[in-house]
Write the structure tokens for this entry.
Amino acid sequence: MTTQSQTADILEQLPEALSYAQSRGADQAEVMASNDKGFSVTARLGEVETCEYHNQRSLAVTVYRGKAKGSASTNDIKPEAIFKTIDAALNIASFTAEDDCSGLADAALMAKEYPHLEMDHPWDMDAERGLETAITCEAVARDHRDIVNSEGASISSIRSHIAYANSHGFLGDYFSTRHSLSCSVVAADEHGMQRDYWYSLNRQGELLDSPEFVGEKARERSLRRLAARSLKTCQVPVLFEPNIARSIVGHFLSAISGAAIYRNASFLTDSLDKKIFPEWLCIQEDPHVMAGLASTPFDNEGVQTHARNLVESGVLMGYLLSSYSARKLNMQTTGNAGGTHNIFVNNTGQDFPALLKELNTGLLVTELIGHGINNVTGDYSRGASGFWVENGQIQYPVQEITIAGQLQEMFENIVAVGTDIDTNGSVQCGSILIDNMMVAGE
């Protein structure tokens, strides 16, 4: 893992880099360095398929000459390499046009004091034992006569060190860990082959689901898809299971990103303070969740992060802004340079069986295929597979269908969000039930 001397080297080099940039004519400058260390292994059919050790360093520099910007990056963090990278960024800035909205985030917004978020949990696991764990996981997944092949089981453990500094005098850093276990297998019968997977992701390796559990889930999810059929084209309610439901939330987040808004490339342009979702629905962003998968004490510009409601009683309360997109919109950055941080969607109290009953007759979606999303118009069309449901009971698996709608209408037609929350990601929500979508099949 990263040593104390390596940490000290990075933290000492950033101020030196900034000083060099200013001595060479930069009016403002910022530097972000990262160091990822760890391993990932994959077992397939009971044997080693891949074993990789990671030790990746990178450093990115951005300089401003007036309002002209130049950026460059390097994987070599020796001082001479850093200075050459800064010179390259300055050279680029000498050829770029000035932009009144460019520059560092405002100095007053820097995270002068920030919380310790308990994101650093090194795992007592090495590649050899990781391989044994992956083999166990895959063996459980393959333990059925109808499981005929495997795409393997993988385990990874990465520890990252992030450090950022700018010419406002800000210097901050933090460590974080990310551990995962996944498995994917192929089932077959006289109707053909089907594959599915399962996985577990956590800051703490000890809190991952057991290899037996992940293997069982991968096996069960593959077997239940056998004998899938298509559907007649129909218009019905659609229930998205949790790991798929987060993609619906993801389309909303993309639509309220500052870059999409100031470019008029979003169907939610000019939607601030307007009702987008049902009145009961709230979406919160909280960067300061202890050990959260998307927690961060400051964003990629050193801006202090804070919790807020993106949607309150169905109403859009704010966009996702960096300092640049905020200036383009005559607003203030929301601390989202680099993305969102721990998104939570409230639920309506039903567990999964209760949601199936509320669905009554319609489609349960367990996989989406393709990227048929138009962020400008909100048009939505994606290939899908899942299960046909009648009278609140799953009847049979379905495939080779397309679900279509308009995202604005889909948001308005959300009738329930379940308590079956998927915690394996930065967006945490339960199953989402949407009334009245087009399902195209035969």
Observations:
- The chain has two domains: 4-223, 228-442.
- The two ends are 55 Å apart (CA to CA).
